[in-house]
Write a structure and sequence with these properties.
heterodimer, A: mainly alpha, 2 domains, 20 helices, globular, B: mainly alpha, Non-ribosomal Peptide Synthetase Peptidyl Carrier Protein, Chain A, 4 helices
């Protein structure tokens, strides 16, 4: 059951009504049941896996948090982290693991079976395992008391708006809101519904409309012209952004219907002044998670290594981001290329800050040149993210560059990819609307503006927004890009 | 001047040096959100500078448990002989 399906709309309506009507002491059970019913529609056996991991991690949290001594706490943390990482690795990287087993097995006297296995990773496993790992470490680091209620803990892990693809909320932030104990206010529900409509706009009107042309170029790069490839390189980051930001906004909006505020995942990433700034604004809940639970501990361990330790920690962090997306060489290289850029940024950060302090006029100009340069670095590194293989990525890169010499061909390329200029005009208008809404949201302008308008005008705006999604949306793709990770 | 006050003054010098800000004044509830450029990179530089400055060593668990300057001061006090 996907967020954009009719079945989900029916499920949400029923779940929300039962939740609102339920007595306070029963709400947490209703929420847990709703999350498990939602997850069970994807896979019943994997619902059992989710249940087992939840129960075991909850128990580990109690052992760590309830003063059984440092030695036992360390042992429990080690057991939980190794176990959770192994589960994740088996499901996400089983093909690579089988290949390795087939290669090294015979040297240990093991016979390799010719039988092939097909293992589909449980939906959302990367997201909920990250939640479980951060919970265990937060309890161990005494940032958070162990959660005594298994029901509340189950709600944190399986909360259905977040389980498909985040945002990866921290346990402390979730429990502070006392989920499953009260109804949202009418204003909060309205804010939630508005965000869901905006999420659908980003997905169907912006992302999927851009995807019509970009997917064509990336699916058949050897049949595409140089101009088409360059246009696809420039527009893919926007497609990915609109798709994932749309999905996140729907998740945040759904959470508000149950009075839970989820963390944001994006903060105007294409306005970032350098690559480090970009990674602080892009998929924020994943990058901050890796910063807290991988980069910082590793950097602390390597602190006596000076700048080399910094470079290793940054690079390992970015490789982890790449590999987290899947067991493909393109993702490894995507992580490595982002790592090289970020290491360069980290090693020069202090000098650059001092330079801009001495040259304030250049610092002002950087507000324009910085985002332009950063966008180009991101767009070209995203070729690795989108291409089917390393050779195709190289083909796209090598054949897109000559198009800079013939800018006139870009217009032709746009008309070929979207079958006419008017389709592309809709994309430009939709992109501008999306970014204006994002910028207005950053300063809470949109909500405040709507709040001050009379009721009839507000409803006109809502009808108009829903109509735009219905009339200008593209409804051919079945899912969101980030659900596969 | 008591020992904790001396530690605070020394810490303030380290903070000013790490964040390149001669006007920076630390206080107990101050956290990363209150200081420009206090990110994950400068955080480790700060820890390394404090360890060198006070000739102490902090564990990963101790560093990860810190949530503001007040807790950092108490940790340094605890670590000093």
């Amino acid at each position: 059951m996907t967020f954009q399906s009719v079945e989900f709309a029916a499920f949400l309506t029923v779940a929300a009504f039962i939740y609102w009507l339920a007595a306070e002491r029963f709400k947490r059970y209703v929420l847990l049941l709703a999350s498990y019913v939602f997850y069970a529609t994807w896979s019943l056996p994997y619902t059992a896996l989710l249940t087992i991991l939840t129960i075991v991690t909850h128990r580990v949290g109690l052992i760590i948090g309830h003063g059984h001594g440092e030695r036992q706490a360390r042992r429990a943390v080690g057991f939980a982290i190794v176990g959770l990482v192994m589960v994740l690795a088996v499901f996400k990287y089983w093909k690579i693991l089988l290949t390795i087993a087939a290669q090294i097995g015979p040297s240990f006297g093991l016979n390799h079976s010719s039988r092939t296995y097909d293992l589909i990773a449980p939906i959302g496993i990367s997201y909920y395992i990250f939640k479980l790992i951060s919970y265990v470490l937060d309890v161990y680091w005494e940032r958070l008391p162990a959660q005594t209620s298994l029901i509340d803990f189950g709600n944190y892990v399986s909360f259905f708006p977040q389980i498909l693809s985040g945002p990866i909320q921290r346990a402390g932030d979730f429990f502070r809101q006392h989920p499953g104990t009260h109804n949202p206010t009418l204003a909060r529900m309205q804010r939630g519904l508005r965000l869901i409509v905006f999420g659908l706009f980003q997905k169907f009107v912006v992302a999927d409309r851009i995807g019509l042309g970009v997917d064509q170029a990336f699916l058949h790069p050897r049949d595409s012209t140089s101009g088409q490839l360059l246009v696809a390189v420039y527009l893919f980051p926007w497609q990915l952004y609109a798709d994932f930001s749309g999905l996140t906004d729907i998740a945040i909006g759904l959470g508000r219907l149950f009075d839970i505020e989820s963390p944001k995942n994006f903060d105007a990433p294409f306005f970032a002044v350098d690559i480090a700034d970009f990674w602080r604004r892009w998929h924020i809940t994943l990058t901050t998670w890796l910063t807290d639970y991988l980069f910082t501990p590793l950097r602390l361990k390597l602190r006596s290594w000076g700048q080399l330790g910094l470079a290793i920690a940054v690079f390992a962090n970015m490789i982890a981001i790449g590999v987290w997306h899947g067991a493909k060489w393109t993702f490894v290289l995507f992580g490595a290329s982002s790592g090289i850029l970020l290491v360069a940024a980290a090693l020069t950060q202090r000098k650059r800050n001092q330079f801009y302090k001495r040259h304030p006029s250049l610092a002002r100009a950087r507000r324009i040149t910085g985002p332009l340069l950063t966008f180009h670095l991101v767009a070209f590194s995203f070729i690795l993210f989108r291409a089917a293989s390393v050779s195709e990525a190289w083909h796209v890169f090598a054949h897109a560059l000559p198009a800079y010499l013939h800018p006139g061909r870009l217009r032709v390329a746009i008309q070929e990819l979207w079958h006419g200029g008017s389709q592309f005009a809709i994309i430009v208008a939709a992109l501008l609307t999306m970014e204006l809404c994002h910028l207005a949201r950053r300063r809470a302008l949109l909500g405040r503006w709507l709040y001050c308008r009379p009721l009839w005008l507000r409803w006109c705006v809502y009808y108009a927004a829903v109509s735009v999604v219905l009339f200008f949306g593209i409804y051919t793709t079945k899912t969101f890009i980030y659900v596969q990770f | 001047m008591d020992k904790e006050q001396q530690i605070r003054e020394k810490l303030n010098v380290i903070f000013r040096n790490i964040f390149d800000d001669e006007t920076l004044q630390i206080y107990d509830t101050m956290s990363a959100a209150d200081v420009e450029n206090w990110d994950s990179l400068t955080h480790i530089n700060l820890i390394v500078a404090i360890e060198k400055g006070f000739k102490i060593s902090m564990t990963t668990k101790e560093v990860q448990a810190l949530s503001n300057v007040g807790e950092l001061v108490r940790l340094v006090v605890r670590k000093l002989p």
